[in-house]
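Model the whole thing, not chain by chain.
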Amino acid sequence: MLETKLKRILVPVEGAPTDEESLRLACYFAKRDRALIRALYIIEVRRSLPIDADIPPDAQRAEQVLENIHQMAERIGCHLEADMLQAREAGPAIVGEAAEHQADLIVMGVPYQEKFGDFCVESRALHVLTHAPCRVMLVREPLKHPIAR
Amino acid sequence: MSIPEDEYRVQTDAGPNGQEPSTVNLDLTRQELRRGTRAGDRYVRVVRPYEHLFQRVGPGYLRATEEVSEPKTRFGRILFKLRHILIGQPLPTSAEIHERLTKVKALAIFASDAMSSVAYATEEILFVLILAGTGALGYSVYISLAIGLLLFVVAYSYRQTVFSYPSGGGSYIVSKDNLGVMPGLIAAAALMIDYVLTVSVSVSAGTAALTSAFEVLRPYTVIIALFFVLIMVVGNLRGIRESGNIFALPTYIFIVSLAVLIVVGLFRYFIGLPPVEAVHYAPPPAQDTVSVWLILTAFSAGSVAASGTEAISNGVPAFKPPESKNAATTLTVMAVILGVFFLGISFLASHFNLIPSEETIISQLGRVIFGKSWFYYLVQFSTMAILVLAANTSFADFPRLSSILARDGFMPHQFAFRGDRLAFSYGIVALGIIAGLLIFLFQGDTHLLIPLYAVGVFLAFTMSQAGMVLHHRRVREAGWQRNMIINGFGALLTFIVLAIAIVTKFIHGAWVTVLLIALLVVLFLLVSRHYRAVATQLALQVKGKPMPPPRQVLLVPLGDLNLPSARALSFAHSLSRQVNAIYVTNTPEAAKDLAEKLKEFAPDVKLVVLESPFRSLLDPLLSYIDALHQEDKDVYITVVIPEFVIAHWWERLLHNGTAERLKRALKSRPNVAVVDLPYQLHS
């Protein structure tokens, strides 16, 4: 799995159950290759507000999620940097950060979503899959109810 | 709204004179506008450049990291590192965990104090009885039986406390809750003295166990004892107070080795085997006859065996659930072991005709029963260890009690602060110093320290038990009458022992304890009076309304017009439209010179010259400020002091430090605000 030596790994988080699995996976690669991990939390700002608007409840939640991520990383035994972004949509911000920081890998969690009865990748992950300049790994949450097919 | 790339957010308002608003963000974050990979993609990155110093918890809420406390100078860093090596890495408050103890671990932690007293209690009885000759030593068994009964009553009474105070029922809390503040303070004073003496007595006795095994160490008794105290101070500052593992091994080795000693000793005695090693010390010449007085004195001397029984009632919350039940069971087990050991040692000492001497009774028993074999050394070492650990119980309890008293406003507030390792550092250091001083003064002689001991122990017992009687009457829980009778009997019995201890030991040193308790109580009350007076003065008189802005006169004392004073004038302008410069001089020419300079540099600054024909600098300025206050009592006088800070300490000798003296003098004047504007000189 992933023969290339990684230098920078980006882990977008959102306070979902998949955060820990994504982080564990990133930590596995980071330990193997001595790579740097950057966790990102993106506050999606409504179009009715300026993009740099101060939104205390969202900022507080972001701080909380990033604090949890720090603690998780400490438990796992790896070091990470964590940043907060504000964007209209999370996808372009993740791709932008990956490009600017020359990330080699993005590890992100995706929820299980269905559209017209079929699984579909949510827009954030889809944008990253489509536009990211580096490798992308998705960690999909397990099914809540097994699907009978 | 759009913001240009890399522009910082502005949150502060403009100053009173319409100056440029500050661009500082109080949350120590800044926002950078970034462009995405596709045209039109924009997002904001929230940058936290000071994350290594302050973690942002939420808007307006920052949490300092460990790096904040790191000193900035090289010497400071060396000291900081040395302290870390000695005391350990600082712990955040969130790391405070209360280890829940099993009964096995709790017995080791809380019982070491009580059980260790068997190492010297029998000896204390014998030391009194020997005054009436060797024939009187036989009474020790009966006296020990009486003390055993006392122990049973005290332990049974404390079982009630354990159930009634599941959050911890030390004598201070129980007495204060039920008898009132004053009895609570008396109990607290008695307890504090008890804790100090526990350290001194236990460490001295532990050292005696060591010097009994290795006579060559006897001349170094005080040094060894002080070394043990130092180790405990450092260990406790590192935060070892609740570490069950440190206590468990030595305590259980002591229990097992002493049990083996007593069982084998009894076996040898009843079979009629001769001593393995003959131990005989010449008894001192008889100075007294056997009398009720002598017996009572011996009883009060031996009653120290009951000391430490209250430790479990203090620490009920540390037990695993059900806390009270587990604590009560541990208390019973402890009392049984303590009673059996005490009676066993007294019985064997009496029947092997041991004479109290420089060598401890346990050491003599060890030699009689096992000779100087490895087992003898195991007994001696485990005795030493448990005695030292018993002292450590006080290192957990004294700082905790001091912190409670400090929280209640009866001791300096510093005692309630937790140090780097979450331990109550002030209490630990204070206990170490006082106990060390006692060891030094009494040359580590347990026998000399014991008379000071029993009064504090039994006064705390009596107050606590009496408090419990009122508690049962007030709460009226199920079976309250029965519980009240048990605690009432305990209070009566411990009071009798207290009275005996005071009467029989008064001239031998108990007066010191009585005096110290009285002094401590007075001290507590004085401290409390001070804090109450401070609180009254600091309390907001009108709640819920903002204070009206004060009228202000702004003064900038000048020595000359130089860079620091120019900065001060400029800063003063940011505070008020009207800035007044004050110049104290003894030559009118200098004043004229400064006025001209000022007219050119800052024409809107009003200059007030205070001529001082007697060459005093500060007095005219202070009198001028006082006079301004006489004119308008409610006016706030803000003094902006320009000051230059020298680069090296020795340069202080070359300057007269007027700014420092002025700051000190202004501090005691009401309605004067001092704004110090330091200007750091380069080396």
